[in-house]
Design goal:
8-stranded antiparallel beta sheet; 7-stranded antiparallel beta sheet; 30% strand; alpha+beta; Glutamine Phosphoribosylpyrophosphate, subunit 1, domain 1; 368 residues; Signal recognition particle alu RNA binding heterodimer, srp9/1
Length: 368
């Protein structure tokens, strides 16, 4: 949670997609600074990147820049699920779906048990997209309590399709352009600012009514469907407290992205200078692009303290890594700097084979 945005561009729309993504991402940054993520279609597959950094840092690292013309964006104000564990950040990844959520789900654990779902993260938002992986949008509204505005991409779609749904209690603004594209965001200012920043003319801007869902292909909206709204447990004091937190880090003054944004660099040509010449090393992250089709739930195994029995930091192939040994003999390998999960092995033997250790040598024994 707590800011979502994105777009579906028509074939006629000639626009700087990097600038468009930057504008939307920066204009929803004030709604959440705990993590930032993006997902898009490329060559018939759904790809995603996410890190527990602010939108500005995400942009500085270059992770915002994609070739996609159907894109979803998220800036997170964490309420449930540690942002240091990247699996908890958005987009939420399931077997087929990359999804972003603005809102809170209060009964995610009960719904997981009731619907016999498989979970791989702590964050409450995951239950939405686990449901959508195998069931219809109607089931989301009837099974859950809380509030939600969501957007998602599905790798099973034959065309690059953006899915949008307002399920109650959270804003979802969208605008259409004269060239047939569609932009959306949690705020009106983000939609209008992105259009102004990139020179697109909006001919319609609307706050999506609760209980509505539709798809978008190449900027063209499909049929608007009426769907069940999520029940809001307004009587729940915990919900009221969480809802305030999920609205972001308080009311602040921020400069809309269509006002020229100056990055922390000497050069005025933001896109024309290599990043390694512009920014201090502390802002650099290793972009990790992953397809939903390649997603494996074991890679998303969370690092629960009561399951991890040993850790070791070392260097492998020039990269600083953290190796974690679990009670079940599973071995996780993380990038030490970003905490991104690089690999997960079901057994110590598998780890030994992958790391090129001789059969008579136990790599785990050597490490720990």
């Amino acid at each position: 949670m707590c800011g979502i945005a994105g777009y579906s561009l028509s074939t006629k729309e000639q626009v700087d997609t990097e600038l468009l993504t930057m504008s939307l991402m920066l204009d929803i940054e004030h709604r959440g600074r705990d993590a930032t993520g993006i997902a898009w279609y490329e060559d018939g597959a759904v790809w995603y990147r996410k890190e527990n950094v602010t939108a500005e840092q995400f942009i500085i690292s270059g992770e915002h820049n994609t070739p996609g013309r159907t894109v979803i964006i998220h800036t997170r104000a964490a309420t449930q699920g540690r942002p240091e564990m990247n699996v908890n950040n958005h987009p939420i990844i399931t077997e087929h779906i990359a999804g972003v959520h603005n809102g809170i789900i209060m009964n995610d654990k009960a719904a997981t048990k009731m619907l016999n779902l498989t979970r791989g993260a702590e964050v409450d938002s995951e239950v939405i997209f686990r449901i959508l992986d195998n069931k219809t949008i109607d089931k989301v509204g009837t099974a859950l309590e809380g509030d939600a505005a969501i957007a998602w991409l599905d790798s099973r779609d034959k065309k690059d399709t953006l899915h949008l749904a307002a399920l109650g209690g959270r804003p979802l603004w969208f605008g259409t352009t004269t060239n047939g594209s569609l932009l959306f965001a949690s705020t009106l200012e983000a939609v209008e600012g992105a259009a102004k920043c990139t020179g697109m003319d909006l001919n319609h801007v609307h706050n999506m009514a609760d209980g509505r869902s539709f798809t978008v292909v190449d900027g063209e909206m499909g049929e608007v469907l009426t769907v069940p709204e999520i029940d809001s447990p307004f009587w729940n004091k915990k919900y009221q407290a969480q809802k305030g937190l999920a609205n972001g880090p308080g009311v602040i003054k921020h400069t809309p992205a269509y006002t020229p944004w100056t990055p922390p660099a000497k050069s005025q040509d933001f896109r024309g200078v290599p990043f390694d010449e512009m920014y201090d090393d502390q802002f650099h992250f290793t972009p990790v692009s992953t397809t939903v089709a390649e997603y494996d739930s074991t890679y998303q195994k969370d690092e629960f303290e009561d399951e991890a029995i040993a850790r070791y930091e070392t260097t492998h192939e020039g990269r600083d890594i953290t190796v974690i040994l679990y009670e079940n003999d599973g071995v996780m390998v993380r990038d030490t700097q970003t905490t991104v999960i690089l690999d997960y092995f079901e057994s110590i033997a598998d780890f030994n084979v992958e790391f090129g250790v001789a059969e008579d040598t136990d790599a785990i024994a050597m490490l720990f």
